[in-house]
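Running low. Invent one:
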Amino acid sequence: MSKPEAKKLLLLAVITVLGVNAFILGKVWLNRSVVVAELTLSERELDVPYHWGMAKEDSSLRLNIAWTTPWLTPNEDDWQYLSRQQQRILRLQQPQFASFRFGSCTDGYQRQQRSGWVLLEFNGQSYQDYLKQAEQHYAVIQQRLAAEAAAELNTGLAQDRLQAAAKRRQEQQQRAEEQWRVAREEATRLFVIDAAADRNLLQQTLAKHSGPTAGQLLLVPADIQLSYTWCQDDKAEKQPEVLINRLAVQSLYVAKPYAQRLPIDTDRQQKIRFQAQVYYGRFAEPWIANLALASGAVSD
């Protein structure tokens, strides 16, 4: 290759890199030129990576957005899973479900993924319903353990068996108390409450939500998949359901000045407490506008 040709290729590469960077920076600027929503999230909704800051060669930080979907009718067996808030199944109204134009179940639900929109609710009715479910679960556990203790006293069991049963109940009591505490103090308050391929359908849902329990609502893009329960071969009547695979933006970059405010996580038993001002822009893409430690920032 001659030197002129090499110079042309180098110049083309430089122009390409500059063009791509200009496009990305231009999109970021356009997105941030209009703030459509502002949320004050905390460590409950933004996960600090495990052992943050321990790798000296990497000082970058991204916070994963923690969210869930409402659980309709949980029972006691479901609660162990529900308490971890890893629910991704969402029941939809027929128009929203139809908007995705899912294919036949013979194609397999795994390949039935569509780009669409979801309605996020922060600290609203869905979280209040979750708290009520947690409180009811806690009350049921207390009643059951009390009934078991009373029944065992009348059975004439040997002392060692009574002690073993009492220890088991104490462990269940502690587990129930921890789940109830986590629901009140640590569980995410960010819920996906609706989804559609057509953004206008969610605008209609958004317009119906108002009042003191509505919380903060916003529309964001997401990847939505046909629920595996929809294709189950049974005779039960099925409700339209989808699986929310992921939000289009699932993690937030933390600028170095903000990241330095978070203490190094040397002990995973401690919880870093902070508040982050999160803005959503013109293209429904979020960014962290400010981050500060909360009072009592690191607690056991």
Q: What stands out?
A: The mean pLDDT is 80. Residues 125 and 213 are 5 Å apart (CA to CA).
